[in-house]
Every structure is written in C-alpha cells, then in structure tokens.
Design goal:
7-stranded parallel beta sheet, globular, Rossmann fold, alpha/beta, two-stranded antiparallel sheet, disordered C terminus, 5 helices
Length: 167
C-alpha cells in the first residue's frame, strides 16, 4: 500500500511534528510513503517513517535527485516543477494533507478529481457556490489520519479489484 503525504515545504513546527507522527504510524503499519521529497511536511513525514524503518519515495520537481531530503529512500527527479504533484497523488491509494499552500491545494484537487480519498490535518477547506464541500475528510490527530487513510485505501483497492473482474 502506498499513501501520499502532502504539505508545504515551509511549515510550522506543529505541522512538522504532525508529519513526523504520521510517518511513524504509516511505517509501523508497513505502508510505503510517497511525497514531494523536499523540506517541511515532506521532510517530517520521511524522517518519521525512517525512524520506524519505513520506505519513502520522493517525487522531485527538479532534475537533480540530490535535492531530496536526507530521509528519502527513492528520489525520482522529474524536471516538471509543480506538474510532479499529479504523480505524487496518482501513485497513492489515499492522501493525507497536512497544512499546505497552493501546491498542496493542487494535489488535493488532483486526488479528488481521481476519486482518491483525501484526509486533512489542519489543511484547506473547500466551498462551492458559497457552501462548504466536505470532500476532504477532517481528522484531529496523526493516528486518526493514518487509520482513516489505510481504511479508505483498502476500500479503494477492493473496489478496483472488483471493477476489474467485472470487465
């Protein structure tokens, strides 16, 4: 199972702690983490995962794999800038968004458009025609985020398998 963790490369100390806790929890459950591979939330989640023996993948915006944070096991240099955001979320069965700026918002949009569940920790909220849309599943802590992401990822995987067997 691969779960994406997304968030800003410049984050608050609280967001960095949340990301690290999410990384630890995911790694303890044998989940592979994919992220943008740089600093901030991405660095925090990778650091947490590595502390618990997890595997991390960083999809980098530039062409130099050495720009990945030191806790990325598999750096993938793309040279496509923010276009890499689509690859981050489309490679996962669920997404956990922690804080974030406009790059994170684009990843949330790509995931939702693709039917990939998004779990939010102190992240964006969405509205349409002045009414809040509950497309992002709100949680209060790292453990709840990981529990929800794994549960939804399993359901999505089961749905994919079922739909393939019908065709």
């Amino acid at each position: 199972m691969i779960i994406a963790v997304i968030g800003d490369s410049s984050c608050s100390a609280e967001e960095a702690k949340l990301a690290e806790a999410v990384g630890e929890q995911l790694a303890q459950r044998g989940v592979i983490i994919i992220c943008g591979g740089l600093g901030g939330v991405m660095e925090g989640v990778c650091r947490g995962a590595k502390a618990k023996g997890g595997l991390t993948i960083g999809i980098l915006p530039g062409e130099d794999p050495s720009t990945a944070n030191q806790w990325v096991d598999i750096p993938i240099a793309t040279g496509v800038g923010y276009g890499r955001n689509m690859a981050v979320v489309k490679s996962a069965q669920a997404v956990i968004a922690i804080g974030g700026n406009y790059g994170t918002l684009s990843e949330i949009a790509y995931a939702l458009k693709s039917g990939i569940p998004v779990i939010g920790l102190n992240t964006w909220s969405l509205s349409r025609n002045g009414k809040e849309v509950d497309a992002i599943i709100r949680v209060d802590n790292a453990m709840e985020a990981v529990d929800k992401a794994i549960s939804l990822a399993r359901k999505c995987k089961a749905g994919e398998i079922a739909s393939r067997s019908l065709s």
